[in-house]
Automatic annotation (TrEMBL):
Coiled coil: none annotated. Belongs to the UPF0162 family. InterPro entries: SirB1_N. It comes from the Bacteria. This is Transglutaminase-like domain-containing protein. Pfam families: TPR_9 (PF13371), Transglut_core2 (PF13369). Residues 45-193 form the Protein SirB1 N-terminal domain.
Length: 277
């Protein structure tokens, strides 16, 4: 699929009443590697369907722990989906097509696999965006739920173990609000944030950071500061006019609340335009 078609499809999918999480993650992967095209998206959806068909027919009334154990046995043990510290250094770990192929990935992408396979099989599953470490929940988020860590092969977590994950990643204590189900758009923005962070640490991959920012801006809700990040990237990549224009528009947005910052951004815009002379 070409760039324009893919991005329009991403924007449309993100604004659906019930966004298709797998499709959005697959469109992110297509942005990273557009060569395989629609076939790769279809093949990944078929693979998720196939994996769901391998689960036992438990029914929605099955205990949450039974669902968690079934997913861990299939995906973690039989199929070998899990993560390791080395996966944080690979862009592929944030791309659903590659995670399905390599069976390795970041916690959030492995959680997407768990959720999409479980959802297809009828499990009461949802994502849990713990700070620093994404996991999945089975059952009722308000009570009687079970947490599992796909990064660790689907290991079932006690509340104390979940707290240790949060404390280890952020140094903050676990709060009940952290168990709330994550919405698809929230998950997708977090995936794109991971890609932006990966690319920001590698200045030679500003192309990746730019498209991750641009996809983030297509989501219905996103931080306004992403417009400034895009402007900076455009200037860094030599598109001074577009970058300066973006900076000026961002300055207008924040002027009422942060006039000093807005003036600083306007000076940056003037400096970017001066680079054309």
């Amino acid at each position: 699929m070409n760039d324009t078609t893919g991005r329009q499809r991403f924007a449309d999918a993100a604004r659906e009443e019930r966004p298709d999480l797998a499709l959005l993650c697959l469109l992110i992967a297509a942005e990273a590697d557009p060569e395989p095209g629609e076939e790769a998206v279809d093949a990944a959806q078929i693979e998720l369907d196939r994996l769901a068909g391998l689960l036992p027919a438990l029914g929605r009334q099955a205990a949450p722990r039974r669902w968690a154990e079934a997913l861990a046995e299939l995906l973690g043990e039989r199929c070998g989906f899990h993560g390791s510290p080395a996966d944080y250094r690979r862009l592929e770990s944030s791309l659903l097509t590659e995670v399905l192929r390599r069976r390795r990935g970041l916690p959030i992408l492995l959680s997407v696999v768990w959720m999409e396979v479980a959802r297809r099989a009828g499990a009461p599953v949802y994502g849990v965006a713990l700070p620093g470490h994404f996991v999945v929940g089975f059952g009722d988020p308000l009570g009687g739920h079970v947490l599992a860590d796909p990064f660790d092969g689907g290991r079932i977590l006690s509340e104390e173990e979940a707290g240790l994950l949060v404390a280890g990643a952020t140094g903050t204590p676990l709060a009940p609000s952290m168990f709330s189900p994550a919405e698809p758009a929230e998950i997708v923005l977090r995936v794109l944030n991971n890609i932006r962070a990966w690319a920001a640490a590698r200045p030679e991959r500003s192309d990746v950071q730019l498209w991750a920012v641009e996809l983030s801006l297509l989501l219905p809700s996103h931080p306004a500061r992403l417009r400034y990040e895009r402007a900076e990237l455009l200037v860094e990549r030599g598109d001074f006019v577009a970058g300066a224009h973006e900076m000026e528009e961002y300055a207008e947005v924040i002027d009422a609340l942060e006039p000093t910052v807005a003036e600083t951004v306007r000076r940056q815009a003037r400096a970017a335009r001066a680079m054309l002379n």
